[in-house]
Automatic annotation (TrEMBL):
Lineage: Bacteria, Pseudomonadati, Pseudomonadota, Gammaproteobacteria, Oceanospirillales
Sequence similarity: Belongs to the thiamine-monophosphate kinase family.
Name listed for the protein in its UniProt record: Thiamine-monophosphate kinase
Binding, ATP: G120, D121, R157, S221
Domain PurM-like C-terminal: start-end pairs: 161-310
EC number(s) given by UniProt: 2.7.4.16
């Protein structure tokens, strides 16, 4: 049976001679990296645990893709260019067929976005995957709330302004339906809902395209409502979400019905679309930028002053506020049950807005710890 160093050399060590900024790669005690001139580093780390964040019997290539995708999504949420990654892989035993598939899924996505694996670790234990990603952003030192903060080339949570539109890329909610499909025994990886769950697409190019057009942003890991609450708190504003403007994919409505589809968008999670605020005058430029990426963006609400209330997310139906149903996943919330290896949840360390109902909707939330670790304010 090969040891850890042989496994690293066989499946994860690659020629990094052309990788930008890599002064010393795997093989020493540390990697040595150099940021480009005029750039600062964005760093984020996520852990994915079998039976909590992904089904342990999912295809190995999908697990490798997914583990890296949720990390790349954090860089996308900041508008950062991916550069380097570290991988800590814990395995219950050595299954070389599984490792071959995992590495293939990981490297294929890494190659697409030009991110170099510069180090890591392989050890024995329950299956879990921890990835640290490093990206680059232009150095900008002024506070986010300055009047010209929209033009700073960084997406943060604290830059939203009163009157900004709220928009989301793509079609959130599909991954939640994919999780349900997996739990019901569906294994057709071409199923659009299941594909969205097992192989999410990090919106790296969208983040780069929108970082000078949007005022604030993050990735949708815990559902639109719970993640928008983060922007509200960071920006000290409230948000009015129009239920009738939520984008509902036909496949999602077919799988869950119209009401279930709306709940999946609001509270499902695992989508890794970008949730943004932007000035109305930048809307057409943003849509034009995304058109070249063949990616849609839908306006779903508007930021507004919080007044005397705490910042919150309000669900509106033709201008009338509605009671919220469900809540986003939190790993250590008393209302969330623990899971076994046989059932996987969606979940993360966030909370929904002040308008939430008291009980969970049973769907869970996200596939990764949201941006509380590295690049988020």
């Amino acid at each position: 049976m090969p040891g850890e160093f042989e496994l690293i050399a066989r499946y994860f060590q690659r020629d990094l001679s052309g990788a930008p900024g890599v002064l010393l790669g795997p093989g020493d005690d540390c990697a040595l990296l150099a940021a480009s001139d005029g750039m600062q580093m964005a760093v984020s780390v996520d852990t994915s645990v079998a039976g909590v964040h992904f089904p342990p019997d999912a295809p190995a290539a999908s697990i490798g893709h997914r583990a890296l995708a949720v990390n790349l999504s954090d860089l996308a949420a900041m508008g950062a260019t991916p550069r380097w990654a570290l991988l800590a892989l814990t395995l219950p035993d050595v299954d070389e067929d599984w490792l071959h598939g995992f590495a293939a899924g990981f490297h294929a996505l890494a190659d697409r976005y030009g991110i170099a694996l510069v180090g890591g670790d392989v050890t024995r234990g329950p299956l879990s995957i921890t990835i640290t990603v490093h990206g680059e952003l232009p150095c900008v030192l002024e506070p986010a709330q300055q009047a010209d903060s929209v033009t700073r080339p960084i997406l943060r949570r604290d830059g939203a302004r009163e009157g900004d539109l709220i928009a989301v890329t793509g079609l959130p909610g599909l991954a939640h339906a994919g999780l349900k499909a997996w739990q019901e025994g569906v294994r057709d990886v071409l199923n659009p809902c299941l594909a969205a769950y097992l192989r999410p697409e990090p919106r790296v190019d969208a983040g780069l395209a929108l970082r000078e057009l949007a005022s604030a942003g993050l990735d949708v890991s815990d559902g639109v409502m719970g993640d928008l609450a983060h922007i509200c708190r960071a920006s000290q504003l409230s948000a009015a979400l129009e239920l009738g403007e939520l984008p509902l994919a036909p496949e999602l409505v077919t799988a869950l019905g119209e009401q279930g589809a709306r709940e999946a968008v609001l509270n499902g999670g695992d989508d890794y679309e970008l949730l943004l605020t932007l000035p109305e005058e930048n809307l057409e430029a943003a849509r034009l930028a995304l058109r070249s990426l063949n990616l849609s963006m839908n306006v779903i609400g508007r930021m507004q002053a919080a007044g005397s209330d705490a910042p919150r997310v309000m669900l509106m139906d033709n201008g009338v506020e509605q009671a919220a149903t469900g809540q986003s996943w939190q790993h250590f919330s008393a209302s969330q049950a623990s899971v076994t290896q046989g059932s996987v949840t969606q979940g993360s360390d966030t909370q929904v807005s002040a308008t939430q109902a008291s009980g969970p909707d049973g769907s869970g939330g996200d596939a990764s710890s949201s941006n509380a670790n590295g690049v988020a304010p």
